[in-house]
Amino acid sequence: MGTRASCGELHTDSRSIGDTAQRRRGQQGARSPAAGAESTMAEQVALSRTQVCGILREELYQGDAFHQSDTHIFIIMGASGDLAKKKIYPTLWWLFRDGLLPEDTYIVGYARSRLSVADIRRQSEPFFKATPEEKPRLEEFFARNSYVAGQYDDAASYARLNSHMNALHQGPQANRWASSLPKPFGRDLQSSDQLSNHISSLFREDQIYRIDHYLGKEMVQNLMVLRFANRIFGPIWNRDNIACVILTFKEPFGTEGRGGYFDEFGIIRDVMQNHLLQMLCLVAMEKPASTDSDDVRDEKVKVLKCISEVQASNVVLGQYVGNPNGEGEATRGYLDDPTVPCGSTTATFAAVVLYVENERWDGVPFILRCGKALNERKAEVRLQFRDVAGDIFQQQCKRNELVIRVQPDEAVYTKMMTKKPGMFFSPEESELDLTYGNRYKNVKLPDAYERLILDVFCGSQMHFVRRLQTPRPWPWPWPCPPFPPRLLGADWSWGSPRNSGDGDRHVRTSRGATPHSRGSPHLHSSAHPRPSEAEVVAGGPTSVPAIKSTKRRNCPRWFLSCHL
To answer: Does the keyword Phosphoprotein apply (predicted)?
Structure first.
């Protein structure tokens, strides 16, 4: 939190950046429209980081959203923690290095640990990626840092913090506070409401920035542009053309000694109900009236209100075990982590089928899958389209897909059928591929926290989560009362051989439920009955083996209320 300039929107679209770059470089003579377009694109692609930052500074300073003369104090609560060390301090350094913070900005760390700025520097600097040429600038950055030790439930500690802030800023009383909160926002409905009510008693809603860092990722932000800036997608983005939507989050590592923290939340609250749910909203929402923060978030809330309650038959939970044939950490299961409570039933994998009950999406399954200790690191949105009516190619055609890969290697690609080259007259699957690493080779994509923290300074809330004004329990449509316990025997080995294969293969949702991935359960299309528990995708595109129905000794009893 900290004092900041008045709220406003940040305008940094490619057209304004391109126009500014063109003005800076000047134009020599007349050019044809085609040549002009090619040159402008080449200029944008060839811009160095310094040039891009300079252009962005110009954009910031032209509006009312960013006042260089105002004093800004950025307070990091929990400054000794892992998130501050690996993300918050490095992000503030990158913004400071590139001149994207107001000139009169101070950073104050606050935590229970008795530390100094030197201690903070020693912990966080390895993550700064600073070059030798940047050392003088780095010294300037840490000169604007300070640290206050104190308790979180002690009024005297906060009085010391307030005195320290007053020493940094002797101007008029600050009235432009912003509070930035990372997820998760409470453990359940009751704790979430308590937290929200308490924060709301201290700050207005336009001062509260609830961070889900996935909303700062390049391809997640690109979802709105793809949908609403391209006419070709408008007529087909609906239940008449889309058979299902699959949202996937996979990590190839386990808890790595942090199981005690993870066990408090589980994979559903850690990933599914925030990262995947926010991406679902961007895929499913209607076109907002504008890119204004309230307009965008209003449409997201409408989507959440249309999600029907999750049925127990549409949920699969699991917990990974060690792979005896693996190496190192892969030989250890979740319960082998010494920080995990003995006999914990916390899920490390979850697959859920949701339905958005409105005119656009009625009957279309949204399949959300996330888990740890899987075969690869990947996050993506996959839209699978319906079969072509009146097939004339003897069922040789596969369904079209639009894939937005969030990480790694950001990309947008379409899987489509083309004629097999040569003398043949038969279709084969190919791709129209926009991989950012190839198309934008010289463009450095900012870290998600860079975008979001800069948005806090600029007063833009478009990429932040708003408190949902909805009667549904928790920001997630689980039924209440909670599911009854049920046995699943949902174990899978780390790096199971059944994970090997094309990571791009997927569960096919054709009318006949034809398998399109080895060992994967089937899903029916929305024109047929919704899938039962046995048919829910339990790993899908060769992500994890299908959840087995066989029980093992001491098989835990899974119930979803453990993780909400």
So the answer is: no
Smallest Cα–Cα separation from 521: which of 502, 503, 504, 498? 498
pLDDT of residue 356: 92
- In angstroms, the CA 10 to CA 501 distance is 43
Among this protein's residues, is 563 annotated catalytic?
Answer: no
Q: What's the pLDDT at 67?
A: 55
Q: Residue 362 and residue 358: Cα distance in Å, rounded?
A: 5
Compute the distance between CA of residue 286 and CA of residue 307 in angstroms, rounded to an integer.
Answer: 14
Tell me, yes or no, whether 221 and 148 share the same domain: no
Judge if 223 and 197 occupy the same domain: no
Q: With respect to residue 414, please indicate whether it lies within any of the assigned structural domains.
A: no
Short-list 379, 382, 374, CA closest to 508: 382
Q: Which residues contact 434 (CB under 8 A, 6 or more apart)?
A: 411, 412, 413
CA distance 253 to 495: 10
Looking at the structure, tell me whether residues 194 and 151 fall in a common domain.
yes
Catalytic residue among 72, 164, 213, 275: 275
pTM of the model: 0.70
Name the one residue in this structure whose structure tokens are 């639009």.
402
Dist CA 564 CA 317 (whole Å): 13
Identify which of 376, 413, 375, 363 has the alpha carbon closest to the alpha carbon of residue 523: 363
What digits encode the pLDDT tens for the residues 230-281?
Answer: 988 888 899 998 999 999 999 888 887 777 778 888 888 888 888 898 889 9
* Residue type (1 letter), 31: R
One domain, residues 61 and 20: yes
Same domain, 326 and 279: yes
Please check whether residue 514 is in contact with residue 500, taking contact to mean a CB–CB distance below 8 angstroms.
no
Q: Note whether 495 and 323 are within 8 A (CB).
A: yes
Q: Are residues 181 and 296 in the same domain?
A: no
Range of lowest pLDDT (128-137, 158-167, 453-462, 490-499): 490-499
Task: For residues 265 and 335, state if they share a domain.
Answer: yes
Query: Is residue 400 included in any domain, yes or no?
Result: no
Long-range contact pairs involving 82-89 (C-beta distance under 8 Å, separation at least 24): 83/182, 84/109, 84/124, 85/123, 85/124, 85/127, 86/124, 86/127, 87/127, 87/213, 87/447, 87/449, 88/449, 88/453, 89/120, 89/124, 89/127, 89/128
Measured distance CA(546)–CA(530) in Å, rounded: 19
Determine contact, residues 474/188, Cβ cutoff 8 Å.
yes
Q: Say yes or no: 160 and 124 in one domain.
A: yes
Residue 410 in domain: no
| 391 assigned to some structural domain | no
CATH for 333: 3.30.360.10
* Domain stops at, among 138, 173, 208: 208
> Of 208, 233, 253, which one is at a domain's C-terminal end?
208
DSSP state of 356: B
CATH number of the domain encompassing residue 202: 3.40.50.720
Which amino acid is it at 89? Answer: Y
Q: What pLDDT, on the 0 to 100 scale, is given for residue 246?
A: 94
Task: Point out the least confidently predicted range of 173-177, 541-545, 557-561.
Answer: 557-561
Helical H segments across 144-212, by residue range: 155-168, 189-202
Number of domains composing the chain = 2
- Range(s) of the domain holding residue 506: 215-386+470-563
CB neighbours of residue 507 within 10 Å: 27
